[in-house]
Structures are given as structure tokens and as C-alpha cells.
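re: that chain from earlier
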Amino acid sequence: MRELRLASLRDPLAHLAFLETYENAVERPDSFWQERAAGSGEGASGARQFVAEAAGGRWVGTATVLVEEAGTTDWAGFPVERRQGHVVGVYVRPEHRGTGLTKALFDAALEWAWGIGLERVRLIVHEDNRRAQAFYRKVGFVPSGVTVPLGDAPGESELEFVLERL
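^ sequence. v structure.
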């Protein structure tokens, strides 16, 4: 988990895709990564991580769904109006992009989300991350009209995309 996360934070678009820096992540102790893996593997902590493995067991892609309960407040301070999933941490190694792997991760994540009764799934994407926006549209997500300002980057914001349960 640690190695894949550090690889994602070295990606040229990481500054647009993740709310964490490589410098912060590399300093985290092994216990952090072990707890994170254990907590998101079975969805017990309100999250479920999906991982794609290549031959030999190397992790080559990931996506995580966080469960947000109605009546709570999300990470940006917005009220959560209904039980929903929030897709975060989407990353596929460059050599595996364009192979259908990202779609397979999303298919698994959405199947799980609908299976536990979530009403919709959302994600937040940087306004300048066109590649990611194009993919999210391709798998059915649409902009909701919600914009999330980035507090540490004045003038920059992220866009909410949503997919309603059919």
C-alpha cells in the first residue's frame, strides 16, 4: 500500500489529484500503512479500497470508496444529505493506463457501493485535471454543479461529479 501511494504522489498530476504530498506520506511510519490497509480492506471502517494486481502480485492500481452518512459533514465542511460513497485515491501506474484497469476498479467499487445500499457515489476532481474528468464522464459520472475551493491554493477549486444509483 505504501509503495503504491508514494508512486501516486510522484505522478506529474499528483498536485491536482491528491490532498497529500509525497513529503508528508514518506514520513508516515509502517504502522500507519498497516492500519490503513487493514481498515479499508473489508470496509469495516466505512471505507473499502480496491486494488489491481499485476502478475507477481505487484499493486498497479487502486481506488477507495469512503461511506458518508446522511446528516454528517464531509471533509470540506459541506453537509451530507444522503448516504453516499465518495471515491478517493484513484491511481493507476502509467504503464497500465489505457488497458481498462481503471474501469475495472470503478466497476468493482460501484458494485460494492450499490451492494451496501448507497444512494449515490461522488468524487471530487481538480478543475484542471481534464484527463480524470474525461474518464469519470465516460463511466457515467456527471458534474453536480458543486465547486469546492482549495483553501491552500487560492483561486483553485475542485468539482464534484456524481453518479446516481439506478
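The beta strands are 47-53, 59-68, 84-92, 120-126, 142-149, 157-164.
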